[in-house]
Amino acid sequence: ARPPPHVLNSGSTNHRFVARPRPRPCRCLGRAFPFTGSGSRSPLLLLAAASSSSRGVRNSSPQQHVQRRSQKHNVGHLHDNNKVNGKIEEAGVRVNKAFRQTHSRREADALVASGRVHVNGTKPEPGTRLQPGDVVTLDGKRVAWERLEPTSKKRQTKETAASSKAASTPADVRQSMKKFVYIAYHKPKGVTCTTDQKDATNLLAALQRAGVEKKSKNQRLFPVGRLDKLSTGLLVVTSDGRVPNAVLAPDAKYQKQYVVKPHERVTDEHLRELRSGVIITTTAQRKGAKPLTAKTVPCQVDRRGNDLCFTLEEGRNRQIRRMLEALGYRTLALHRPSFAGLKLHGRTAAPGGWALLEGDELDVVAKWLK
Questions:
Q1: 233: left (phi > 0), else alpha (psi -120 to 50), else beta?
Q2: How confident is the model at residue 297 (pLDDT cuts 50, 70, 90)?
Q3: What is the CB neighbour count within 10 angstroms for residue 365?
Q4: How confident is the model over 185-242, as pLDDT tens digits?
Q5: Residue 185 in contact with residue 357, Cβ under 8 Å?
Q6: Given this model, what pLDDT does residue 228 score?
Q7: Which residues are known to be catalytic?
Q8: Which residues lie across from 142 on neighbouring strands?
Q9: pLDDT the model gives residue 213
Q10: What is the reported pTM?
Q11: Per-residue model confidence as pLDDT tens digits over 325-335
Q12: What are the Cα distances from residue 181, in Å, to 24, 25, 215, 220, 221?
């Protein structure tokens, strides 16, 4: 039997290998045919060799073959290191996210396309990504976009995560809070928790009538969470975009207390059902959200005469009203006296009252952010 060319050229004296050469695959049929005859190749192997030559495939030693495979493997790992969930990671955030608190994504894209937005003095493309320190303006007015994007989507190494954790001391958090405004507002009945100026009952108009504008440092305010139009109680209003993400995240589990007046006394059996959970259908307050039909998370429900006091960690849209409605009760009044460690008192005791958070109340906010 004739050995392969790379054995003859290498000067090997391994007669065992020469006598029994490894079959070479045929690229045409996908099968291996050994060399046959004395000093000649089979017609099929000649055809495969001709096909390989026409495609530029050259013979190589086993060592070269292993080396090429190793290089290919290493290149693949380099590409994987730049991928997150199968996608190449990109730094920064898209320019349209600078307006996510005031405009929808399509509206923000339209602003960029119309030329009203500038980044560092130049008109950006729709896909431009913002980096920390970039100056974004809309119609010449600066947009404080960085405080609306407090968390980076970049992957962190263990060292980076450890250093950021070490830097999040209470003193550092309190220092970062100095440039923002935190307000406790007793929302009266008839005020809608929206910043949409087209709604005459919007929250910002109510705050302006209450005189909050004088203490807001000309910063844009927005509510943390919601109370429906007919409900009253404590509503935290702030200019710090980190707070809603910290308090309202599903895993945060901060307690909110509600005092509810049903149209008639709730039976003991229904009280047990409210505590263990009731199946309701709710829709999140965002565009494109689909209705969710599921049982509510078990919660604490106590009697206060004919009224009920709910303590919830969950926060679905109009949750308490829908829970009572599912059992055949109408809600005549709903009031929230406390929210995630803060309570109504003093100047906020009366509907429409408000006060800047200070002292221990700011410590509560710092715990949210930490």
A1: left
A2: very high
A3: 26
A4: 999 999 999 888 889 999 999 998 988 877 777 788 889 988 999 999 999 999 888 8
A5: no
A6: 92
A7: 228
A8: 137
A9: 76
A10: 0.57
A11: 999 999 999 99
A12: 76, 74, 8, 9, 8
Residue 87 tokens, joined: 């996608």
Q: Tell me which residue has tokens 């959200």.
A: 289
> Is the per-residue pLDDT at 31 higher than 90?
no
CA distance 336 to 230: 12
